[in-house]
Amino acid sequence: MFFQNAREAVAVFYVFFDLFCASIIGILLYTTLSDVEHTNKRLHLVNLLFAIILYCVADSIWVLAYSNVLIPCTVATRYLTNIIAYSVMTVCTYTICRFFFSIWDSVTAHQPKQMKLIFIPFALIILAIVTTPLTHLVFSITDIGMMIKGPLYALTIMLLFGYIIVFSIISIVFYYRTQNDFAKEQYSFVTIYSIPVVIGALLHYKYGTLPSFAIGFTIATLIIYIFQMRDLISIDALTGINNRRQGERFFQEQIRRINEEPHSTLECLYLFMMDLNKFKLINDTYGHAEGDKALIATAEVLKEACSHIYRKCIMSRFGGDEFVIGVVFTPEEATLLNEKLNELIQKKNEELKAPYKISISIGYTYYKKEFKDFRTFLTHADKLMYEMKEIAHRESELENKKEE
Predict the structure, then answer these.
(1) How many Cβ atoms are within 10 Å of 223's Cβ, its own excluded?
(2) How far apart are the first and last CA of the chain?
(3) 381 and 365 in contact (C-beta within 8 Å)?
(4) Predicted pLDDT of residue 1
(5) Cβ-contact 218, 206 below 8 angstroms
(6) What is each CA distance from 22 to 61, 225, 324, in whole angstroms?
(7) For the sheet containing 360-366, what is the strand order?
(8) Would you tell me how many other CB atoms lie within 10 Å of the CB of residue 128?
(9) Spatial distance between the Cα atoms of 86 and 381, rounded to a whole number of angstroms
(10) Phi, psi for 237 (deg, rounded to 5)
(11) In whole angstroms, how far apart are CA 259 and each of 58, 256, 312?
């Protein structure tokens, strides 16, 4: 016999799965830390990976004390290991929520200020867990080392994983409300991550000696990591929006659909070509770091302008200081979007309070079948954009002369 009793066998296999999951997450963490890209979403992913590894270790210690293997099963050790395990579980859930926020943030430039207060219920949960030896509200330990669930135990678990479920439901709603392919993909991340985590949590709640929570974490994180790697191919590292490759793919797919249609509709495929005015001057005068800030701020304006568009839409950086929006719109909606972009640029300047002003020239047009291909379509929009750029240049020169 390899094991003296069933509890010892359960503990060994439990620890094996925990450490196996921790090693997989550790490999992902090492790879993520080695990556030169440090977007907001990537940094929150790093925090999440750290938290999962910490949970797997705490969970292993918990089961060793529970099974009286290596760690003696006393009232003190059971209280300590349970407090550590449930506190780390709370931290894990909080980092999941922060990761979800970072995913949403990649779609829209704004997050409600109330979102920052989400740490409060998690802090209260940890306080309840840490003080439970005195209050017995979450759990209590008997003289023989058995854990008895307290009056707030079920509520604590429901709050922890209720957040994940709620975020998943919200993401599903947003997924079906938008036709923006990039936004759809980002919202799907939240739902995909939630499923194995919630299943693992439910199994762990019902069968305490099953390491399903760690396994659920690992499966979910592997799936998300694969999606993140795919992001590297399609997302511009600096601005967090689609790169040129994804933008061209969107237009080619839409143009192929339009060319195959027997008749035109009221809605048209619009291409908004944008270029930052005097971007070289910003780089030369204030440095490339400030130039990068100007590009990121412009991308945030695009995100905000497109955040409420629930049709086929894409935002992409085409290279340098050139940005493109592709959207299926009516002419009236296209005019409104053009106005909104200019308004938001002015608002962004007020927020930044930088020593320079960001301004963009926009050329936009809709696709006509006589264009035949994307290259002709892009060239036409590009020509209109440079006409607007020339107008902006002349207006700037007039302002400078007036100041003199």
Answers:
(1) 15
(2) 95
(3) yes
(4) 45
(5) no
(6) 13, 15, 42
(7) 313-319, 322-329, 268-276, 360-366
(8) 19
(9) 57
(10) -65, -35
(11) 59, 5, 17
Q: Mention every residue, 6+ apart, whose C-beta is less than 8 A from residue 372.
A: 259
* Rounded-to-integer distance, Cα 367 and Cα 346, Å: 29
136 backbone φψ class: left, alpha, beta (φ>0; ψ -120 to 50):
left
pLDDT digits (tens, 9 = 90+) for 25-62: 999 888 888 765 566 677 888 888 999 999 999 999 98
Instruction: Classify each residue of 197-215 as buried b or exposed e, where b means 16 or more C-beta atoms within 10 Å of its C-beta.
Output: bbbbbebbbeeeebbbbbb
Provide the pLDDT for residue 401. 56
DSSP structure class, residue 127: H
> What φ, ψ does residue 131 adopt, rounded to 5°?
-90, 5
How far apart (Å, rounded) are the C-alpha atoms in residues 345 and 343? 5
pLDDT greater than 80 at residue 296:
yes
Predicted pLDDT at 22: 94
Task: Report whether 77 contacts 20 (CB < 8 A).
Answer: no
- Confidence at 71, pLDDT banded by 50, 70, 90: confident
Is residue 224 a contact partner of residue 155, using CB atoms and an 8 Å limit?
no
Better pLDDT: 28 or 186: 28
At residue 3, the pLDDT reads: 56
Alpha helices in 181-323 (DSSP H): 181-206, 212-234, 244-260, 279-286, 288-306
Those residues with Cβ within 8 angstroms of residue 118's Cβ, 6 or more apart along the chain or in another chain: 94, 97, 163
Instruction: Report the alpha-carbon distance of residue 310 to residue 327 in Å, rounded.
Output: 10
Q: Which residue has the higher pLDDT, 327 or 201?
A: 327
Six token digits for residue 93: 């859930």
Average pLDDT value over all residues in the chain: 83
- Which pLDDT score, from 0 to 100, does residue 258 have? 81
403 has pLDDT over 70: no
Q: Which two tokens stand for residue 61?
A: 């210690």
Of all residues in the chain, the percent with pLDDT exceeding 70 is 88
pTM for the model: 0.69
- Tell me the C-alpha distance between 64 and 69, whole Å: 5
Are 250 and 270 in contact by the 8 Å Cβ rule? The answer is: no
Question: Which residue bears the tokens 């308004």?
Answer: 343
The residue count of the chain comes to 404
What token pair was written down for 54?
A: 């910490």
Whether 12 contacts 69, CB under 8 Å:
yes
Helix (H) or strand (E) holding 99: helix 75-105
